[in-house]
Design a protein that fits this description.
- It is a single chain.
- With 133 residues, the chain is mostly helical.
- Helices cover 62% and strands 5% of the residues.
- It contains 7 helices and 2 strands, in the order ααβαααβαα.
- Strands 1-2 form a two-stranded antiparallel sheet.
- The longest helix is centred in the C-terminal third of the chain and has 19 residues.
Length: 133
């Protein structure tokens, strides 16, 4: 889970771990295999894989939170990712853009896991219903 990434960072291997995370994400999200992740692919990826019952979600350490992300949270998260990562404003994020933006993506994943833990503890999500990871 993300705690493994944190330990890896302490060992000086964060770049390699984040590259592996980008590669796994592309393998799961780039369903048309065109080398970029579109907004619709990103939304489908979030709905399918950023949940505690998915193997990817379990790897990230998602536990006890929402079974599914709310549509508003998915839309907000996708827009946040594209705003941070689609450097050429092409409407798709390629691997190079994702690797350049990996620290922002990691921070967004940390927020998602933290919010998931709050939800599991019975805390109320923010006013939007989710962080928009």
């Amino acid at each position: 889970d993300l705690s493994v990434v944190q330990v890896t960072a302490q060992l000086g291997l964060l770049g390699a771990m984040m590259d592996a995370l980008v590669n796994v994400t592309f393998g799961l999200a780039d369903t048309d295999l065109d080398g970029t992740i579109s907004r619709s692919e990103a939304s489908a990826f979030a709905k399918a894989h950023l949940r505690e019952t998915s193997p990817f979600g379990q790897t990230l350490g998602l536990r006890g939170g929402q079974g599914e992300l709310a549509e508003a949270a998915v839309s907000a998260g996708v827009e946040r990712v594209f705003s941070a990562c689609d450097a050429d404003k092409s409407g798709g994020i390629d691997k190079d853009e994702a690797k350049q933006c990996r620290r922002q993506l990691y921070a967004m994943l940390e927020e998602l896991v933290a919010e998931d833990a709050q939800n599991a503890a019975g805390a109320q999500p923010n006013a939007a219903g989710a962080s928009g990871w």
